[in-house]
Automatic annotation (TrEMBL):
Keywords: DNA integration, DNA recombination, DNA-directed DNA polymerase, Endonuclease, Hydrolase, Magnesium, Metal-binding, Nuclease, Nucleotidyltransferase, RNA-binding, RNA-directed DNA polymerase, Transferase, Transposition. This is Integrase catalytic domain-containing protein. PANTHER family: TRANSPOSASE, PUTATIVE-RELATED (PTHR42648), TRANSPOSON TY4-P GAG-POL POLYPROTEIN (PTHR42648:SF11). The keyword Metal-binding applies. One of its GO terms (cellular component) is nucleus. Residues 1-24 are annotated as: Disordered. GO terms for biological process: DNA integration; DNA recombination; transposition. Residues 63-152 form the Integrase catalytic domain. InterPro entries: Integrase_cat-core (IPR001584), Retrotran_Ty1/copia-like (IPR039537), RNaseH-like_sf (IPR012337), RNaseH_sf (IPR036397). It catalyses: DNA(n) + a 2'-deoxyribonucleoside 5'-triphosphate = DNA(n+1) + diphosphate. It comes from Austropuccinia psidii MF-1.
C-alpha cells in the first residue's frame, strides 16, 4: 500500500530551541508573535512529522464504516453515563454509515433529534472538523516531542 502525505508549508514553524513553541503544543509563528514570544525561523522536526496529513484512503477502508453504529452506541452510552445527561441532538453528514434504519430507530427510541448536514459539505461541520484536527495535531506534537512510547 502506498500512502501520500501533504504538509502545508505555513505549518512548519520554529525549532525546539524555542521552549514555548514545544510547551504550547507547537503553535504557528503567527500565534507565537501574538503572545509576544520570540520567533525562531527554522523548521521544527516535531511540527514536520506531526502536521502531515494523509491523503484519502482507498475504497477498501470504507468497509470499516459498517462498524459505525455499534461504536456510536458505545460512545453515546459512555458519554451519557459520564455526564449524567441524555443525548438531545446528533448532527452528522449524510454518509451511509449514519443514514440507516438502525440510527433512525435509535433516535426514535432514545428521544434524540438526528440532524443531517448537507451531503459532501464538510464546511457545514467546519468548527468540529477544524477543532478535532487542531487537538489531534497538538497531542501528536506533544507526544512525539516528549519521546514517550506511542501507546500513550
Amino acid at each position: 500500500m502506498h500512502v501520500e502525505y501533504s504538509v502545508p508549508e505555513n505549518h512548519l514553524t520554529t525549532t525546539a530551541s524555542n521552549p514555548w513553541h514545544e510547551r504550547l503544543g507547537s503553535p504557528g509563528n503567527k500565534a507565537i508573535r501574538m503572545m509576544g514570544l520570540p520567533v525562531i525561523n527554522s523548521t521544527c522536526s516535531t511540527c514536520y512529522l506531526n502536521k502531515m496529513h494523509m491523503l484519502p484512503f482507498d475504497k477498501h477502508f470504507e468497509e470499516l464504516k459498517s462498524d459505525a453504529f455499534e461504536q456510536f452506541v458505545i460512545v453515546k452510552n459512555r458519554m451519557e453515563s459520564l455526564h449524567d445527561q441524555k443525548l438531545k441532538t446528533l448532527v452528522s453528514d449524510q454518509g451511509g454509515e449514519f443514514v440507516n434504519a438502525k440510527f433512525k430507530s435509535l433516535a426514535e427510541s432514545d428521544g434524540f433529534v438526528d440532524i443531517l448536514s448537507p451531503a459532501k459539505t464538510p464546511q457545514h461541520n467546519g468548527f468540529l472538523e477544524r477543532a478535532n484536527w487542531t487537538i489531534i495535531e497538538k497531542a501528536r506534537c506533544l507526544l512525539n516531542g516528549s519521546n514517550l512510547p506511542k501507546k500513550y
